[in-house]
Design a protein that fits this description.
By secondary structure, this protein is an all-alpha fold.
Length: 46
């Protein structure tokens, strides 16, 4: 497993966070960190 020792922060609106949680549920991903890493590194996929 990669050493994860860097913090990355960003702001999002309430609606954006709700949409992120909705997408996480659709993909079966529980960890927001894992989801955001996947989207940032691999991009969007359906």
């Amino acid at each position: 497993m990669a050493k994860r020792d860097q913090d990355v922060h960003f702001l999002a609106s309430k609606e954006e966070v709700e949409r992120i949680h909705q997408k996480m549920d659709e993909l079966g991903i529980r960890s927001m960190g894992a989801y955001l890493r996947k989207m940032a590194l691999d991009g969007y996929s359906q």
